[in-house]
Amino acid sequence: MVTVFGLGFVGLTTALGFAHLGYKVYGIDVDEERKNTLRHGELPFYEPYMDEVLTEHLDKNFFVTDDIKKAVSESEYIYYCVGTPYGKNGSANLEYLFSAIDMASNAVDDDKFRVMVIKSTVPPSTTAEKVYPYVKAKNKNFGVANNPEFLREGYCWKDFIEADRIVLGCNDEKSKEMLIKLYEPMNIPIKCVSHSTGEFIKYLSNTLLATLISYSNEMSQVADAIGGIEIGEAFKILHMDKRWNNCNMTSYVYPGCGYGGYCLPKDTCALYSQSEAKGFSPQILKNVINTNEKISRAIAEKIAKGLDNSAKIGILGLSFKPNSDDVRDTPAAKIIKELNALGYKNIYAYDPIANAEFKRRYPEINIEYKESAKAVSDSSDVIAIVTAWDEFKVFKHVKDKKIIDCRYML
């Protein structure tokens, strides 16, 4: 049996994934609204296919519970999928992780061996130097491992069920054997490495993606400065290079509005902070972060070019990527704030599914929300496409309106 602490994108996908494999899974979360939503068979966020999986397994193999003692006592595997947000100087805040570890430790009154599995993203050396000694001081019958996730929002279920690889960071044979047994039915390559290697692989993946995005955005600014360059076409032809071995680089080596969402901003800052704390200042990573921070201002200036402060500006797309309602660290919020700072107050916005979530998360941003892209167009002097939703491709044929295609999708 499996207990999962944290039922966000990663935790819920993990819990339902194991339930789908036939295991009994308990889900625990501190957010009452989220738990109630799940108990009613509804997702607390938008994620394709997951609603069907939830309906299939809720109260059969997957149970949302408040009885931590019962869940932990019955389980051999305790998964931690809680948030590790920005801490001081961009470092990872481990407060929620240690709180969840305490909940499980305090619920155990037997000597059964259980493995605590850190699926939350934590900087390299965290498990070995902080989590492992902390857990062992509380209960020697716990094994400790990490199991980084490689999920893309909008594709969470597919990325779990059809994963490229499963990475297990272990330092004891019993935990390793148990985890291999847990994952064996998936028939996916399993790579067993040290605690710190497991953590590093996750950051290696995310910081590469962040670097590719920032590189692409900087090159688009170089092209703008030179002039006369068809930026979107240039990048599409770049993608044809056979040296990329037919891998799908198109989502990352392509200019846009910068990286956003929960993972890339947090993880690039956390790895930079961790490296500095260990005595090395990685300059490429530092500049990746700086490029991403500055791109919002550059885009806002591009949108505002030639406009007076009374101009009406339309923003199409509020989520950080299409097929998601996640607006955490979304470029749209940064661009709108930069436009406000430049003196533009008449801003109209629309997203196919993220209007309500954006309004909830950014109450300080004063914009007028519209119910369609057409309503934004009718109200605005200039339109900026900020998220590459397919429905915005119709603006390729709009000739009577100034369109700023920040995603080079038209």
Describe the structure.
This protein is α/β, with parallel strands linked by helices and 410 residues long. Helices cover 44% and strands 13% of the residues. It folds into 2 domains: 2-193, NAD(P)-binding Rossmann-like Domain (Rossmann fold, 3-Layer(aba) Sandwich); 202-405, NAD(P)-binding Rossmann-like Domain (Rossmann fold), CATH 3.40.50.720. Strand 9, helix 13 (331-341) and strand 10 (347-350) form a beta-alpha-beta unit. Helix 1 (9-20) packs across helix 3 and helix 11 runs antiparallel to helix 12. The mean pLDDT is 94.
Mean of residue pLDDT values:
94
User: Which of globular, elongated, flat, extended, rod-shaped describes the shape?
Assistant: globular
Specify the helix fraction band: 40-55%
Biggest sheet layout:
8 strands, mixed
Q: Note the total helix count.
A: 15
Quaternary class: single chain
Beta-strand residue fraction? 5-15%
Instruction: Give the domain tally.
Output: 2
CATH topology value of the largest domain: Rossmann fold
What order do the SSEs take from the amino end to the carboxyl end, as H and E? EHEHHEHEHEHEHEHEHHHHEHEHEHEE
The CATH H-level superfamily of the largest domain is: NAD(P)-binding Rossmann-like Domain
What distance lies between the first and last C-alpha atoms, to the nearest angstrom?
49 Å
Class inferred from helices and paired strands: alpha/beta
Beta strand count? 13
CATH class term of the largest domain: Alpha Beta
The parts where pLDDT drops under 50 for at least 5 residues are none
Provide a concise account of the structure shown.
The chain has 410 residues and is of the alpha/beta class. The protein is built from 15 helices and 13 strands.
